[in-house]
Amino acid sequence: MSTPISEKLTPIRKGLLELVILKIIAADKVYVADMLKLLSDTEFATQEGTLYPLLSKLRREQLVDYEWKESDAGPPRKYYKLTAQGRAQLAALNDYWKELNRTLAKLEK
Amino acid sequence: MQKVVSVNLNGNAYQLEEPGYEALRAYLERAESRLETNPDRVEVMSDLEQAVAEKCGRYLGPNKTVVTATEIETIIREMGPVETPESTAEVGTSAGTGAAKPADEKCAPKRLYQIREGAMLSGVCKGIAAFFDIDVTVVRVVFVILTFATFGAWILAYLMMAIVIPYADTPEDRAAAYGLHLKAQELLGQANLHTARALREWRRTWRRQQRVWQRSWNERRPWEQHMAEQTHGAMAGGPPPMGHFGQAMAGISLPVFAIVNAAMFVAWILVMISAAMTGTIFGWSLPADLPLWGSLLILFAIYFVLTAPLSAAQHGAHHGWGPYYGPWAALSGLFWLGFTVLFFWLAYQHIPQVHALLDQLPALWQKRQTSFVV
Asked: Which of A14, A49, A60 minimises the CB distance to B80?
């Protein structure tokens, strides 16, 4: 029996998640619940268990930074934003993704 | 009514129902062990606690100060398993791990466990109550009724369950016993612990069961005698004068009953051992969609149905002896014991499957202990 298609798609999605998160953070200062909500109806729907470790890694790589903001519904929240380095990396990843798409399109002809 | 545990989640106090607390603690412990090599461990852990706290807040209000176990379960499900980005990268490069991972992370199904906390004897009833989500008293009452209805033989079934059903000794086990969301993978890690613990428990349970058995045995005989007298009284207006023919019949039937009973008992015990240890009855496989304890219960029921008329007849024969009942019962017991030992020996000597099974028993027991938890 061949591998079910879903198992082949999962690693692709996981690999792209970093790019997706950088894109979201580039658009606006967001906090984790916002990101999860934005993604909930998409193929990239994810959970805190995945997102927090990823964000911490991005912060360690100095691609994102956060600031604390008071919230009226409880304790202060972390709002994430891109650093200059993060912006550069997002541009590079975006270019690469477009390059991949072009190649795929070319191969279809 | 549930016990409530107060917890500090990233600087704020929350009150959780105890099973929910166990589940949450297990989740966070698991997260921490997953992040062990991650340089961001401390930060991620506090982020996760914060996220749980916010989600708890959603369920609380001026008139609701406690987060229930079900709500915690929902929260844990929403949080999802903690994955480090490094392991995500691994999944990306190797399709093999990618395929294996989702299977591991499926939530563990509800399992039948013995639950020590609040147990009267061994915790079998408590575990069954948790499994079916019913009150433990209902289960206990049913067990007591079954014990009387089967003239104490149900105690044997209880003993069997006490041996076969593992104990829920870790938060993971307890969560699985109550059917909370957890991962199978972590349960596997507990398997080794179980082996040692199960052996110790087995000894303790055995001693406890012996006492229970002894007690019910002592109570049983006068009660039965009383019943017998009453029935005879109603039929003939007094203890029955038994003729020589009747006495002779009883004398002959006694060893016959003992032999048949012993043979059936030996066959049944061997079938039970085979079923419990190898999952098959001498090569004939058990129904796959039925859990092991279910099969064992059915086997027990079959044995009881087959032997019930026999033992009723045996009691009848005993009662025919009126005042001699006591000595004859003892003699019959000795007969039974003798034939049981004899049949075991014969089966061991002359039936190759039985021989093989009994020889493999220690190894199978080890294996069984580890695979129970899977």
From this structure: A49
Q: Quick check: B91 contacting A, CB < 8 Å?
A: yes
Which of B39, B80, B83 is the closest to A60 by Cβ? Answer: B39
CB B95 within 8 A of CB A11: yes
Collect all residues of chain A within an 8 Å Cβ-Cβ radius of residue B10.
75
Q: How far apart are CA B113 and CA B326, in angstroms?
A: 40
pLDDT for B294 beyond 80:
no
* Contact B51/A at CB under 8 A: yes
Low-confidence residues of chain A: pLDDT under 50: none
Asked if A49 lies within 8 A of B82 by C-beta distance, the reply is yes
Residue of B nearest to A32 (CA): B51
- Quote the CA–CA distance of B199 and B202 in Å, as a whole number: 5
| CA A42 to the chain's CA centroid | 12
Q: Considering only CB atoms, which chain B residues are within 8 Å of A74? A: 53-54, 57
Q: What is the pTM of this model?
A: 0.42
CA B129 to mean position of chain CA atoms: 11
b/e B334-365 (16+ beta carbons within 10 angstroms → b): ebbeebbeebbeebeeeeeebeebbeeeeebb
**Given this model, what pLDDT does residue B93 score?**
37
The mean pLDDT of chain B is 73
CB contact under 8 A, B54 and A33: yes
Q: Which of B134, B137, B136 is nearest to B115 (CA)?
A: B136
Question: CB-based contact (8 Å) between A10 and chain B?
Answer: yes
**Tens digit of pLDDT for each residue in A48-61?**
999 999 999 999 99
Distance from CA of B84 to the nearest CA of A (A): 6
The beta-carbon contacts of B122-126 under 8 Å, at least 24 apart in sequence, are: B122/B158, B122/B162, B122/B205, B122/B208, B122/B209, B123/B167, B124/B158, B124/B161, B124/B162, B124/B165
How far is Cα A10 from Cα A5, in angstroms, rounded to an integer?
9
Q: What is the mean pLDDT of residues B310-326?
A: 59
**Among B320, B329, B307, CA closest to B249:** B320
Q: How confident is the model at residue B37 (pLDDT cuts 50, 70, 90)?
A: confident
